[in-house]
Amino acid sequence: MSEMKTCFKRVDYDLQGLLHYIDIGDIALPDIQRPFVWANTKVRDLFDSMYRGFPVGYLLFWENGVANSARQIGIDEKSHRIPQRLIVDGQQRLTSLYSVFRGKKILDADYKERHIEIAFRPRDGKFEVADAAIRKDAEWIPNISEMWASGKSSRKLVNDFIDQLKVKSNLTDEDEELMAHNLDRLFDLHKYPFTALEISPSVDEEHVADIFVRINSEGIKLNQADFILTLLSVFWDEGRHALETFCRSARQAPDREASPSPFNHLIQPDPDQLLRVSIALGFNRGKLKNVYHILRGKDLDTGKFSDELREKQFAILQKSQEHVLNLTYWHQFLNALIGTGFRISELISSQNSLFYSYAFYLIGKIQYQVSEDMLQRLIARWFFSCSLTGRYTGSSETVMDGDLNHIKNSQDATGFCREIEQMMNSQLTNDYWEITLPASLESSAVRNPGHLAYIASQSKLGAPVLFSDKKVHELLDPAIKPKKKALERHHLFPRAWLENQGISDLTIINQNANMALIEWPENISINKMHPVEYVPRLRERFTPDAWSNMHEYHALPLGWENMNYIEFINERRKLMAAIIRKGFEAMG
């Protein structure tokens, strides 16, 4: 029997040494990790822990790993093009520390360059994320990167800070001594000790990916999609790169003369979200639990691994992803959603609903050759119904698995469409429209799916803005970026008046049924007046037909200004549900 041996060794570093290795390119980031750093608050907490002398976890390196798939930390060029060590675990910590200690920019989650600015108050050793108030306060060092990037000695840094603070504040000898001590302690963080476990160079990429999956516990928790992205980096780096490029482009508005782009105003996809669409299209699966093993070449029946099977499965994924990233399909799908009235990202209550709808669009398009006009109408209604009912807000993978199983035996385009219609009809019954939906609208949550669908329906139906000649869809135009929102939520029965009537519960006062979108000048003019006061004045500006039309599309009973408040919101919820139903049925 062969003796099992450990595949790693322990190596001790100080932070200064690690930063030096990153500077020259001896330590680099492999593509099996995400390239994004923590939120600034996370970096702040890291510095606070190190300052207090707390442990912040070990690092895991891959010694002499494969260099041709490595990324460098930061955006500058390195003197050593071939790194000696790749970071397997600890990338978030090292990237954050490198950025702060070297004053280097990093790429954030939106693929934009930015600095990480962490502030420090020497009087009490407090760390904070820099903001406008801190930058104006002489008690703070607004960006601690200056401590190390300036090239100044610790003594000069201490003296300069204390001299500047003396101009604005009286300091005792004890104050100066304490601040000098705390600044020296901060400056010496470059001596902070780290322990690294270095994986042997004899370990291949697949096993390194497996180790990463098994030991990762720091930072953002990995899910099944992350595991699959790990495999993409090892076995199909071009596919991972294509996903990231698509997502980056979707966040950046192109120049007018630029080539077609995935950029849009509804959604900024992440790689794992598009990966889910590819998995649904290629493998007919909503659950990703077993897909990781499939892509590793594991036969789920025998438990054995096969390079041949792995290559076959990756070929399926490759073809599927080509369809997912096809800009024509992407734009046609988005156009279908815009046709539902969901014109802006703020109306999207469930991103799962959007991406799973994209999967069904592609399945209908690729596998069943549904005509584009029929598919657009079908997927628009499917997305609307999924968003409205919260179909994918619970156990989304389980629900999607069931939905995919529901349609997999469809024989042709007609069968596919019939199955989708049946799934919608099973939820959107008459009882749903008349009982369930009005009850679900009894909410003060701004992101209530029913309320967002109500606004989308107003947009779809060409409703006028309340007390205005403009249309709702015109003021929801995502291309318009005013300093102040064109439309504002306004209490039809003002809060102050309701409180005077003894209603103090904000969940009742802020009911969505008490809210209406109006233009902000009208919001200001109405202010705190009771409807009995402001409604007659506004009615004079409109013809009887226009007034009646406006009330219909805003679910307002005629004479509502004279109604009891509780009676009003109960009645209005029913009318709001009717508008949502009308918007849904208008999609064909």
From TrEMBL:
Every GmrSD restriction endonucleases N-terminal domain range: 17-231
Protein name: GmrSD restriction endonucleases N-terminal domain-containing protein
One Pfam family per UniProt: GmrSD_N
Organism: Candidatus Fischerbacteria bacterium RBG_13_37_8
